[in-house]
Design a protein that fits this description.
This protein is of the alpha/beta class. 42% of the residues lie in helices and 15% in strands. The structure holds D-gluconic acid.
């Protein structure tokens, strides 16, 4: 592995990483040499994910953490402190989707999407950055944006607002933390074959729309996001800050 992309000696926390894209990111960073800290809401799926990566020979630990709950985030970082685990890389991946027209949307559903995506990204990053700055170490934040960070479609307003906010929060993190040799960037996945999108894949009209809306004429695969995650976690991106890299088959590049 070229030293530029080598994560040996680094420890990465990936939120929402017991399955889906979060697990793919964790597996990818581990394959590049990182120690990985998985986190998720449900202990059973988290433990299974830890075991799966340990069986591949990777250095893995797992912490139950609901990023919509500040007290759990603070407690997790205190546990990491006690365990002597210093986080160098954070991938703020935890997320949900809620598809409903705004006129029918209840505040609790709006708030839950915001709490997990936008506020969760802020709170986890705040706790990690505090420690990076205090120990004078470098740091990497990879937030997860979306095509909806740039363009909207009906029925996903809270997700769209949150993803747009994450794009600007990423720039705020770059603005405040760049001076400490911390880089904050984001990955903007296109339409990827994930559990969260299963209903869309199975909707013939939506599937056709996705395939006709990007030059690749197909859905993306989770493993196609790993290279960008490693890049943004590595020394290869030390002079990149506040950027969103769209891994979307070219969707946003074309009319
Ligand atoms: C949706 C999808 C999208 C994708 C992705 C696109 O309902 O439109 O869930 O939000 O997941 O974010 O970039």
């Amino acid at each position: 592995m070229n030293k530029l992309f080598d994560l040996t000696g680094k420890t990465a926390l990936i939120t929402g990483s017991s399955r889906g894209l979060g697990f793919s990111y964790a597996e990818g960073l581990a394959s590049a040499g990182a120690n990985v800290v998985l986190s998720a809401v449900h202990k059973k799926t988290l433990d299974a994910a830890v075991t799966k990566l340990k069986n591949q020979g990777y250095h893995v630990t797992g912490y139950v953490m609901d990023v919509s709950k500040e007290e759990q985030i603070i407690d997790t970082f205190n546990q990491l402190d006690k365990a002597g685990i210093q986080i160098d890389i954070v991938i703020n991946n935890a997320g949900i989707q809620h598809r409903q027209p705004m006129v029918e949307l209840e505040l609790k559903d709006w708030q839950r999407v915001m709490d997990i995506h936008l506020t969760g990204t802020f709170l986890v990053s705040r706790e990690a950055a505090k420690r990076m700055i205090k120990r004078h170490s470098s740091g990497k934040f990879i937030n997860i944006c979306s095509l909806t960070s740039e363009q909207a479609r009906p029925t996903v307003a809270p997700y769209t607002a949150a993803k747009g906010g994450i794009k600007m929060l990423t720039r705020s993190m770059a603005a405040e933390w760049g001076q400490y040799n911390i880089q904050a960037n984001a990955i903007g996945p296109g339409y990827i074959l994930t559990d969260m999108n299963e209903a869309l894949v199975n909707d013939k009209a939506f599937d056709t729309w996705v395939k006709n809306s990007n030059p690749a004429k197909r859905w993306g695969k989770p493993e196609e996001l790993i290279g960008t995650a490693i890049f943004l976690s590595s020394a290869a991106s030390d002079y990149i800050n506040g950027q969103v890299i769209y891994v979307d088959g070219g969707w946003l590049a074309v009319l």
